């Protein structure tokens, strides 16, 4: 994967299957921060690119949860794209929606564990290094990684179900749950930034 997606870091765990070959351990808090997206139309994605996005964004975080077996709190870094999908993010959005749904189900399976899902919109990080035009288009809606980190730190030890950032995306996600057809229309018409 590194050869194809050189900007990824820490893929050694995934490539070497370290979580499969070692004895599981137990930690108090696990923060799962895996994220990788290719933003192009579905027809332009290869089967391998589709599999890689699901592997990194959905499957590997679940495997890490089994391996590290958090006892106090699990924080899964998903994406607001899992709640508000957009054109050219079909696979990324689907893979993050899978992590959100997993988190919701796991919260029911493990009521003794605090399960928090972080759903951020655009964050000013290396994630968008190849797509600076996108960050310019979303403008002030892009948030800093420091803001995301501060919100996560403030949620440690608290029974917080979700952190949705920025606040505008929270409102849109709630509206989309009520009126999905209208929000899909508006997204295609006015917010197709990728």
TrEMBL record:
The keyword Lyase does not apply. The keyword Oxidoreductase applies. Pfam families: adh_short (PF00106). InterPro entries: NAD(P)-bd_dom_sf (IPR036291), Sc_DH/Rdtase_CS (IPR020904), SDR_fam (IPR002347). Keywords: Oxidoreductase. It comes from the Bacteria. One of its GO terms (cellular component) is membrane. GO terms for molecular function: oxidoreductase activity. Belongs to the short-chain dehydrogenases/reductases (SDR) family. This is Oxidoreductase. It comes from Lactococcus fujiensis JCM 16395.
């Amino acid at each position: 994967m590194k050869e194809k997606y050189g900007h990824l870091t820490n893929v050694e765990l995934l490539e070497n299957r370290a979580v499969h070959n070692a004895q599981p351990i137990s930690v108090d808090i696990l923060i799962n921060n895996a994220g990788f997206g290719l933003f192009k139309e579905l027809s332009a994605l290869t089967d391998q690119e589709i599999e890689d996005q699901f592997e990194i964004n959905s499957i590997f975080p679940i495997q890490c949860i089994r391996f590290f077996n958090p006892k106090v709190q699990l924080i899964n870094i998903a994406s607001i794209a899992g709640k508000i999908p957009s054109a050219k993010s079909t696979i990324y959005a689907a893979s993050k929606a899978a992590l959100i749904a997993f988190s919701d189900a796991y919260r029911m399976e493990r009521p003794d564990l605090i399960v928090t899902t972080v759903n951020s919109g655009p964050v000013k990080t290396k994630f968008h290094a190849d797509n600076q035009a996108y960050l310019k288009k979303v403008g002030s809606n892009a948030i800093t990684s420091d803001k995301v980190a501060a919100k996560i730190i403030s949620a440690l030890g608290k029974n917080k179900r979700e952190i949705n950032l920025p606040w505008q995306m929270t409102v849109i996600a709630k509206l989309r749950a009520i009126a999905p057809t209208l929000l899909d229309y508006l997204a295609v018409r006015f917010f197709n930034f990728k």
